[in-house]
Write a structure and sequence with these properties.
alpha+beta, two-stranded antiparallel sheet, 3 helices, about 30% strand, elongated
Length: about 200
């Protein structure tokens, strides 16, 4: 009995291409790290205007006016692991959460990441990183790491999710989280979701 192979229809090919486009990093600078010198190597990566605009949409800010990373990648542990250090600098425009007036922020953050050639690409949930006070190393994929995505991830961590203009105070609502400032506790409509919090034991 023969099994019919799935047809590679134009619609299926288009759907696959669209899926790959959706998950592709907006700011991608992959570099090969298989044969680095012992002292490592320096790279400088900078987002284009088009990449910055795509990142702004991803990060839900009005604009990423500039984004740059100055990085040093050095092997250690007999070449099995890589240390990525450097700085991320960016100019980001957001809206004040109170007045909605535009705010421009100059961001500068240190980058300190570890990658491993032996780290699995898809880590099982039961696997734990045993080195004390260290984050789980990221995997080197096909001999390369993406410096652009490293910088973009640091940018995402550095952006203030609730920016406020200087001198603007945030007023606490009369009722917040089921507790009224002037009355008895009321039912929290999100109480049913409380049990779903922190289900994933791994760090993001």
């Amino acid at each position: 009995m023969s099994h019919k192979q799935p047809e590679n229809t134009p619609d299926a090919a288009a759907a696959e291409a669209a899926a790959q486009e959706r998950i592709a990093p907006e700011f991608s600078r992959p570099v090969n790290v298989e044969r680095l010198p012992d002292l490592g190597r320096h790279w400088t990566v900078e987002a284009t205007a088009e990449e910055a605009a795509a990142l702004a949409q991803r990060l839900n800010v009005d604009a990423v006016e500039s984004l740059k990373g100055v990085l040093h990648v050095k092997p250690f542990a007999k070449g099995d692991m890589l240390k990525v250090t450097g700085t991320m600098t960016a100019t980001v425009r957001q809206a004040c959460v109170v007045t909605l007036q535009p705010l421009t922020s100059q961001l500068s953050e240190d980058i300190d990441r570890v990658f491993s050639f032996s780290a699995p690409k898809d880590l099982p949930l039961e696997v734990e990183w045993t080195v004390e006070d260290e984050d789980l190393p990221d995997p080197v994929v096909d001999g390369a790491i993406d410096l652009g995505e490293i910088v973009a991830e640091q940018l995402a961590l550095s952006i203030d999710p609730y920016p406020r203009a200087e001198g603007v105070a945030f007023t606490v609502p009369e009722t917040l989280g089921g507790v009224s400032a002037n009355g008895p506790e009321t039912e929290n409509p999100f109480a049913a979701l409380a049990g779903l919090k922190n289900k994933n034991p791994l760090k993001e």
